[in-house]
Design a protein that fits this description.
single chain; 228 residues; Glutaredoxin; Glutathione S-transferase Yfyf (Class Pi), Chain A, domain 2; 9 helices
Length: 228
């Protein structure tokens, strides 16, 4: 497998965590988002949406169904996009340890927690949105950061209510799940933009518990080969 990603990309960090939890080896390929490398012609055939992460899997590896997972790139590989879809693919093809609960209600809760972050917080604050605010709408740096902090702080308050209603060691239960893979990178970004976090104590307790595990700490942005 080859993971095409960027050290500071929270979506990429999600997949790195999942790969580490599963104990899966992969080749690390970096695309520098801040320098807009992902928009260059060299990557147009590999990054269909000009986004990372992308996981390339040799056809016949895992479930062997490369075509249904996003198509081939012409080199005998399946090209998988979207971090949560990648993580669920890894969970289906390498089921131990599981990242989704066995019971339907548990799976629904974990997916909802992950989507509270990946669908409600992250899209409003990713690099292309922040750049549009500054370059096209002429928003000041201070206003851009205020935008970022607002959506992170209010979004994490939603997550906090969910975690407080059903406390556990991790987001759900006693082992990390998809939700934890998504939560931890969002906290890293929140800290980078100096968002307020004192209003989400349950969330931060889960974050610290995750960071005590090698799969989370060894894949964090500062430990990546392309870290700056």
């Amino acid at each position: 497998m080859e993971l095409i990603n960027y050290f500071r990309s929270s979506a990429s960090y999600r997949v790195r965590i999942a790969l580490a939890i599963k104990g899966l080896a992969y080749d690390y390929t970096s695309v520098h988002l801040a320098n807009s490398e992902h928009l260059g012609a060299a990557w147009s055939g590999t990054l269909p949406a000009a986004l990372v992460p992308v996981l390339k899997v040799a056809v016949g590896d895992g479930d062997g169904g490369g075509g249904g997972d996003g198509g081939g790139d012409g080199g005998g590989d399946a090209v998988l996009t979207q971090s949560m879809a990648i993580i669920e693919y890894l969970d289906e093809t390498h089921p131990e340890p599981p990242l989704l609960p066995r019971d339907p209600l548990g799976r629904a809760r974990v997916r909802a927690l992950a989507q509270d972050i990946a669908c409600e917080i992250h899209p409003l604050n990713n690099l292309r949105v922040l750049r549009y605010l500054v370059r096209e709408l002429k928003v000041s740096e201070d206003a851009k950061n205020a935008w970022y902090r607002h959506w992170v702080e209010t979004g994490l308050a939603t997550v906090e209510r969910q975690l407080a209603a059903q406390p556990a060691t991790f987001c759900h239960g006693d082992t990390p799940t998809l939700a934890d893979c998504v939560l931890v990178p969002q906290i890293f970004n929140a800290r980078r933009f100096e968002a307020r976090l004192d209003h989400v104590p349950q969330t931060m307790r889960v974050f610290e518990r995750c960071m005590a595990l090698e799969a989370f700490s060894s894949t964090q942005p500062s430990k990546c080969p392309d870290a700056e």
